[in-house]
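Recap for those who missed Tuesday's class. We walked through two folding examples back to back. For each one, the amino acid string is listed first and its predicted structure tokens come directly after. Nothing is annotated here on purpose, so try labeling regions yourself before you check the end of the notes.
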Amino acid sequence: MTTSIKSIPSFTKSAKALLAATNGLDSATAKFSGALCTTLQQYLDACAMSGIERTQKGCATIGKAVRENEVMVKAWFHDGTLQQKTVTEYAQGMMRAYFHNVPFTQGLKNDPDMKIPSVDGTVKGGGKVKSGGKVQSTNRAELDKTIAKMLEQARLIGLTEFAATILDVCLDSLDGFKE
């Protein structure tokens, strides 16, 4: 017995529905990513305000607090919302951001320049981590970079009016300043 197909239904309507769903997913992913970075940075700012030192030990304390948090454990063990690996990666990125005093980003855990040194100051794989140290000499370009970073940090923690005021002062006082 043979069946003949006279015409196949158009897939266009289905394709448009899939594309619309993908656009919604992209939007939701971007929204989540922004909320994730902001929320984790706010936690790191709270750690700094509470006096946790930017040392290996201080960072280990932060990592443990994140990995062993009851809400996070429930999410990965009981709900399946998160994988334990994901929570560990968030913790690693947060520890690196905190130690190096840079904004949290999701890719920080993979950045070889952002490793945390051991207690003796060495990094796994060799080398020493540069410490900030005292500023004994600088130049205008370095000052501009530092100001731009400070403005970014202020905005990340919600100090937008403060950042705007500092930016206005810089634009008025420093010839050629560009953010």
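Example two. Treat it independently of the first, because the proteins are unrelated.
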Amino acid sequence: MKKTVEEKTAISYYKKKQEEEILRTKFTRTSTNREGVTSVWTYDLDKFANGPISVELIYPASFKLPEEKLMMENKDKPRSEQKFLNPNNGKLVGYYRAKTLGII
């Protein structure tokens, strides 16, 4: 089966990209998740060949941790209507369940 010019070009481009990836020893990869947190993974294959040498997380100014969000929601509620974070499994529990678990 003969290959078309486009297929030959695509294959040679792919091989060229593979060779470039092999030759690079220092590089970074950046990704952003849906909450806006940017992670920068820095690789140096001369120092450590199995993974990144550092990972940096950059949070946006409006980012709040789940505990902070929960505190804001519970601020105006009476104690019996508040929700609490169970440290064992990370789920929300009501006031009476939190009391029996010893969270409060």
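Answers for example two:
The chain has a mean pLDDT of 84.
Residues 5-23 form the longest helix (19 residues).
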